[in-house]
Amino acid sequence: MKTKTQTKVREPLPFFGVGRLLPYLAPYRSALLTILSLGAVASLFDTVLPLLQQYALNHFVEKKTLDTLAPFILAYLGVILCAGLVNYISTTVATAVEMRFGRDLRRLAFDRLQTLSLSFYNQNSVGYLHARTMSDTSRIGTLVSWSLLDLVWHSTYLIGAAVIMLILNARLALIVLSVVPVLSLLLAFFQKRLTAAERDIRELKSEITADFNEGITGAKTIKSLAVEDKMCRSFYADTAQMHKKSTRAAAMRGAFSAAMQFASSVAIALVLWHGGVLAAHEVGTFSAFMAYAQGMTEPVRWLVGAISALISTQVNIERLTDLLHTEPDAADTPEVIEKYGDNLAPKTENWEPLRGDIAFCDVTFRYPDGEENVLEHFSLQIPQGSHIAVVGETGAGKSTLASLICRFFEPTSGKILIDGKDARTRSQLWLRKNIGCVLQTPHLFSGSIRDNLRMGKADATEEEIRAALCAARADGVVDRLPDGPDTDVGEGGDLLSTGEKQLICFARALLSDPKILILDEATASVDTLTEQKMQSAMTEICKGRTTLTIAHRLSTVQDADEILVVRDGKIVERGRHTDLMRAGGYYSALYKKQFEYESAAKILKGN
Amino acid sequence: MDTKIHSENGASAAARRKTRRRLFARFLQRAKRWFLLAVLAAGASALCDMLIPQIVRITLDNCLSNAEVPSPAVTSVADALGGFAYIAKHLYIPALLICILAGVQMLSHFLFTVGEAHGAETLVKNMRDALYEKMLALPYAWHQKHRTGDMISRCTSDIETAKNFISEQLTNIFRTLLLLVFSAVFMFSMHAPLSWIALAPMPILVFVSLLFHGVIERGVTACDENEGILSALAQENLTGVRVVRAFGQEKNEIDRFAAQNHLYTELWVKMGKWISAYWCGTDVLSGIQVLLVLVFGSIFCIRGGLSSGEFIAFLSYNAMLVWPVRELGRMLSEMSKAGVSLDRIFYIMEAEAERDETDACTPPLDRDIVFDHVSFAYTENKPILSDINLTVKAGSTLGILGATGSGKSTLTLLLDKLYDLPRECGSIHIGGVDIRDIKTSYLRKNIGLVLQEPFLFSRTLRENIAIADDGVGEAQIEAAVKAAALDGAVANFANGYDTVVGERGVTLSGGQKQRTAIARTLTTKKPILIFDDSLSAVDAETEEKIRAAISARFGKATVILISHRIATLCAADNIIVLKDGKITEAGTHEDLKCAGGLYQKIYHAQNRKEDTANEDENAD
């Protein structure tokens, strides 16, 4: 799904946006300094090794003596052991910074998402938000630690090698170093194209995945239409495109690394040409030059890689910091927070009991991203204990009232009274803790059934849990499970069937004995058996509670005290069932259609 | 689970090996020549790698000093270039030679990459195409038995693993071995004892890296699992945001996420230590190996038998070897992964596809359809249809009424050959021809099957409607859309017929989807039409319009209508009521409405409804 935020054109930020991360990096200042300094030291050790080789050749081989062999071996061992140790420390610290900084960002993003209003969720797809929380944070963590280490390590190596070569033989050094700028330009040229090509390939890959998905989930339709050939042909076109793009990218990569190798060979040729005479009396110096010349290409490659990582991660930094700076728009006022606490630290001792009177007073509402009012000067009294139903076809916008009552959204104008007081004068959490919600798609969280139920009431006793399960007719489900209420429900509750999940959700909503009950198409996605169970429980459960039922099945809400009929996001009819039937409008037409189906289904099943 | 299904496949090991060989041959089509190119180019590239240090050595040993007696071949080449002394004065000559060799090396390296990429990509394309084709060729029953997510991951990530193995590991292993062999040859030709010293630590290096990778692999798996849990927590929270808010669970969610976030992070930090230890440890080991070569090389130089030029060449070869050898451990440890992925891919490839009889025919289908003693069960002992005998006259309409699970959909799926009717379970004939003998694609092309929850493709509305026939023109599409009463909806879309629908496009309502599916069926004339509850989301008025349009367009098509709505069924020439896989009532609307069965009850219930509404009205 595409969202607006993704298509926004981006301005380049100074320092690739790294500056935006500085506030979050404060705790890692010393660790980053360690990476910087140790990286430089480790790289210096590496620069020194060819010098030791030079010594061996100049001293032992040329002078034909082994007098200093023992100290040489010790020095060499010393250098590689020290280098190993320093490298070990710097890379361990780099991993720790990568992971822990990523963890901090992830936590911040997640925490922020918990406070952002539902309108924000309506504007951004779950996939988009998930990618910000998970992959952006990881990428940024990697960038901050490893790109830094790469930059330090390889630039130190380059500088160190340059200095040593200049000391050994300035003229030869300059000749060898002349390769570096050519190499850098070459790399930058390729890198840019490679990044673009890789992006294309990623997109094609998701295209192919989508193709497979379609081919598998749509198998029945493809077969019944006998369009296998056509589907295959269009799939072949996609894979052919993939083949073309991938091989082109590979050719580019090949040219790239071939050029790298060529450059390093040219450096060797230059050393031989201009430095060959050295070999006669100083074979060691000659070989040191060879080693540096050969060793030059890798660091240049890494440096270019680190810079291109910086460039490509800029988008991630920007998106993530944007998210972290988004302000929630339906938060409680400071006075309310002062008295009742916020969502994370509620002051439950100040909470008043809730009776359950709801009133919409002259409410006008438009969704933050919407273009027209869905409610205009709407008033409705829902006295304590009464039953209101909202009906209409799927997608007609029936959930608006429920969202307003739960304060997922605030009215554009007018107000909603809870027990006679403006809802905004008390905290969101207070209200929500007093509302029991059952939504269309049953959603459980990984963990045991007990954990899930306790979302409704954290300190529920065993008896209360049992009572809620019984009331929701979910006791049968739990009893069938191997570990009863301690059974793990799996990711998103997927180890249970949809019907079982919905019954558990029902019980969860009842556990806190809420004064207000909202059933938002609670039976829409369950099987007939579950639906019957829920229906049979309903009358009993609704007794004494203010109930708002949202349904597209009209037979379930005939007894409601008032029925609001929604069409295309607007309330078109309202009244009791018999009144609406008599009016012979939209409601009665809907009812007629559904009744036919249901009566038949009932008779066919019943016998 | 896999192994179980494997054994169910029942193929003997030998037969399976044979099919696998055949499949491999198919996958390798047009890829082999590229791989051959890659192999040759890799050889050439490695040879150049080897020759460059030799030029340096000869220049040092023979031109700039007289450390060694040159071989006759070297002398003759040198003489051709002006003799050793001349070269010593004009060092650009060997430098140029190096550049030429480097050029050849560059070219061959480039060719290697291109060959390898073309080979691997062709192979992957072959695999993907074969898998996709297979997916569509597998019987519907097979699809029913397998989980979508698992199949998709076999088609995507397993292919990816297999590809990475072929394009990265396999070629790298090959190149490393080539490099090892070549440099061993050159090193031994210069100085055997020093070569032994240089090569002896290599197995240790490979062994150590294998050892580490065992540990690291396990650790990384644990990290991946924990990352999966963390990612699932975020996913769960984001999709369940309404529940989180409604129950005021923000704090719990934050705590839960933070705990897992921490666990995952620290696991990686610990892993990071192992990985660092691996790199630094092998760094030190290879450093020691270089030291050994340096020390013994120096000794051999002093004692004679090794010239300084040879020594430098030796050091160059050595530098070339250390890195790839260290990587060898990683590659070997990843080989096992690819094996598992290949198995998972072959599992699909080896499944039995739908197949027509060799002499499958294409008879006219505007004939009587006869179900002759048809019984069917998806799983043993749970019959879904038992002994159905039924004739649908050509050009007539059959109405079917039945509860969910009564077998009414199965009946139509059998007719469309989406399920194969076993020989011993009766037969279905069209115009006297057993449908088992009719070409499957011909049969399906001529039966318009509209499902209750139709599947739309992620394409434009136009492409969706025209999908069954490439030759469909604009006029036909518009007529079909009109017949399906979809024209109003199309006019409301911003992009009209070019609106992308389906999974990645605009979400259509249930009724719109059904009408799109009907339009898709109506583009061309079909002798048989089946509506499997496919007007359920359409209101009565629209349904009437659609039905009128269909009979106007198709005249005497044979129609099978499944519905719960008596008003829909009553016009049918013949109506059956299915219950538990048996026909319990059959006849016309007039017959059944007073037959005292389920049909009559439903008829009364659905008509009484209006009476009740009227009664209510009167009562008030």
| Low-confidence segments of chain B | 1-9, 610-620
Name the CATH class of the domain at 22-168 and 313-328 in chain A.
Answer: Mainly Alpha
Reported by name, the CATH topology of the domain at 22-168 and 313-328 in chain A is: ABC transporter transmembrane region fold
Instruction: Kindly estimate the percentage of residues of chain B that lie in beta strands according to DSSP.
Output: 5-15%
What is the averaged pLDDT score of chain A? Answer: 85
- CATH homologous superfamily name of the domain at 22-168 and 313-328 in chain A? ABC transporter type 1, transmembrane domain
Tell me the CATH architecture of the largest domain in chain B: 3-Layer(aba) Sandwich
Helix fraction of chain A?
55-70%
Classify the fold: give the CATH topology of the largest domain in chain B. Answer: Rossmann fold
Q: What is the radius of gyration of chain A?
A: 35 Å
Helix fraction bin of chain B = 55-70%
Radius of gyration over C-alpha positions of chain B, nearest whole angstrom: 37 Å
Distance between the termini of chain B: 64 Å
- Please, how many helices of chain A? 22
Give the overall silhouette of chain A: elongated
* Largest interchain contact: A-B, 153 and 163 residues
Low-confidence stretches of chain A: 1-9
* Lateral strand order in the biggest sheet of chain A: 6-7-8-3-9-10
Which class of secondary structure composition applies to the elements of chain A? Answer: alpha/beta
For the report, how would you describe the main beta sheet of chain B?
6 strands, mixed
